[in-house]
Amino acid sequence: MDLLEYQGKQLFERHGVPVPTGRPASTVEEAVLAADEIGYPAVIKAQVQIGGRGKAGGIKIARNRDEARAHAAAILGMDIRGLTVHEVWVEGASEIASEYYASVIFDRSAKAPLLMLSTNGGMDIEEVAASDPQAIARLHVDPLLGLQDFHGRRLAYEAGVDADVVRPVGDMLAKLYRVFVEEDATLVEVNPMIVTPERQVKALDAKVTLDDNALYRHPENAALRDISAEDPQERMAKERGLTYVKLEGNIGVLGNGAGLVMSTLDVVAEAGGAPANFLDAGGGSKAEAITSAVEVILSDPKVKAVLFNIFGGITRCDEVARGLIEAFAQINPTVPFVVRLDGTNDVEGRRLLAEANLPNVVTESTMDGAAAKVVELAAAVPA
Amino acid sequence: MSIMVDSATKLCVSGITGREGTFHSLRNRDYGTQVVGGVTPGKGGQDVDGIRVFNTFHEAVSHTGANTAMIFVPPRFAADSILEAEDAGIGLIVAITEGIPAHDELRVFNTLKKNGRARLVGPNCPGILSPGKANVGIIPAAFFKQGNVGVVSRSGTLTYQIGNVLAQRGFGNSTIVGIGGDPVPGSDFIDVIAMFQEDPETELIVMCGEIGGDAEERAAEFIAANVTKPVVAYIAGFTAPPGKTMGHAGAIVSGSHGTAKAKAEALESKGVRVGRTPTEVAEVAVSLLGTAA
Fold first, then answer.
1. Do A258 and B213 touch (CB under 8 A)?
2. What is the pTM of this model?
3. ipTM associated with this complex
C-alpha cells in the first residue's frame, strides 16, 4: 500500500523524524484555515500518489490568505496524470540550504534492507543513478543486526554531506530505518531531505510503501487506504476478497493461480487481443466465488467478451462450471464467454456446461485455442 | 533419483489439525509420503487419522525422527513455526502459507542462512513432488508421472499446465519444485537448478519465472557458468503494467526493473530457450528430449 505524502509525514512524526508542520485539507475553506493557522508563507501540495506534482502545478506557495484560497481552489479537483486531487497538504514553507536524498529499500535481490544517501536531492533518483552512480552512497544492513550508528556515519561521510550535519543526517537515517522496520514498510524515501539555513535536517517529502501482508499488526495504518485513488472495480473486488487488477483492454479474464492468469493475459495479447483485467479466482474456488468474480469482471463496461482459463489442481472444474451457470442465472450476461476447463474434474465440468446449454458460452480444450477464440469474439462485438 | 523429497522423507506438518492442513497431510500420505507427525500447540497427544500430533517440533522430532517439515499455519504464526522447525533440527522446511509479512520472511531467510542447517522452500508455494516417491504440499500428483524432467517454478498452476502437456506427450518428472511467489523465497532458481544439475535422473530442466525481482536474470548467469543440462524457460507477465502486484506478492514490475522482457532476454542471451506460451515450453522440452520411449 502506497501512502500519500502527508500520511507518510504523519507516520514519520510518530517516530521522531523532523518534518515541517502541516495539516491536510479536503476543501478550500479547510485549506485556508490551515494556512492561517500555520502562518505564511505556506505551501499547498496536491496529495496524489504520483510523481511530477510540482511540474503539473500541484504544488504552490501562498504568501497570504488570498493566494492560499486561489491555490487551494486551483489544486483541489485538479487532474494530475489521470488522478483527481481530493486532498491537499498545507505546510509551513521551508528555507533550504541543501537538498539531499535518503531512502531505505527492501532489496529482494540481496535479501536485506538497502540504505541510500545522496547530496543530489530534489531530482529523480533513477536519473542520478544512471548519470552519476558515484553520487549515491549505498549500504546493506543485516536485518538480524539492525542499523547501527556507524552505518549512518559511514553513509554520511561517503555521500559527502556537509561536515556539520553528519550527526543529524545519521540520526535521520536511524529514524527512517526504524520507520521501515517498525511499520513493516517496503520503501521509505525522502526526496528532498533538506538542510535549513539554521542547519536543521528535515524531511520535506515522504514516500512510503507498506507491506499489505503486515497490515494486520498495524490497524492504524490499515485505515489509511486512499479509497479515492482506487478504481471502482478494484475496490469492489477487494471487498469481495478477490485478486483483481484493472487493465486497459476489453477482454475480461478469469483464471486460477497468479502465474496462470498472468500467462493467460500474455497469450491473449499474443493472439491480438487486449485484456481488461487480471483476476485470480484462487485455489479451491467454490461456485459462489466464481459468480462473484463474474459480477466484478462485467461491472467494467469496456468488457466485450470474457475468457475463463482454468487448470484445476485444488480448484475443481465442476465447481467452476456450477459458478458460471449460477452467474448466468443471476446476472444474465450479454457478452460472449469462452471457457477452457482442464485438470481436476474437467470432464464433469464440461458436461455440466453442455447440459446447461448457456447462451453465448463456447468451450475450448486448449489455452491457446481459447485465447484465439475470445479475441475473435471480442472483435466481432460492435463498439 | 530425485531432489529434496523421496521415499526417505519423514514429514511433520505444522498446522496439521487445521482444515487445509488435515486435507493435504492425508493426501500426501495417500500418495505414499511418510507423514510421521504433526505439530499444533495445545493439541499434543491427539491424532489426525492416526498421525500423532505434538505440541512442539522438538518433541515431534525426538519421537518420530522427522527430517522434513511442511508449514500450513496462518501467516501470523508461520515465521515462528519455520524458525521452530529449524531450531528442532529439521533439514528441509516447505512453507505453503501465503501472506507472510515481508519483514518476517527477511528475518527467517537471514537466520536460516546464518545457521546453515536447514533449507527453506517457499513460502507461498505449492510444495515439492517427486513422482512415484513423495509429495510434500498441494501439487495435484495425478497430472505427473515419474521421468527425467526437473521443474522449478514460481507459480503452481502454470507448473501443472506445463507438466500436463509433458505427460500427454509421454514425459515425466524427476522432481517438481514450487519455490513460491513471494519477494523473499527461501530457495531460488539457482539453488534448485544446481540440485537438478547434480541429479542423475534429471536430463532436462524447465524453469517457470514471472515478473518481479531479478532471480531469473541471476539464474541465467548461473546456468551459463555451471549447468550442462538443457534448460527451457517460461516467463509470465509480458503484459503486466508497472507498479501493480499481479496476484503474487513478488510479482511486480518496479519502474523499469523486473520486466518479463528483460528476464527472457537475459535467459536467451545465455542460450536458454524461452517458450512464448506454456504449451510451447512443453513442446520445446519434448523436441530436446526426442520422442518418448
1. no
2. 0.93
3. 0.91
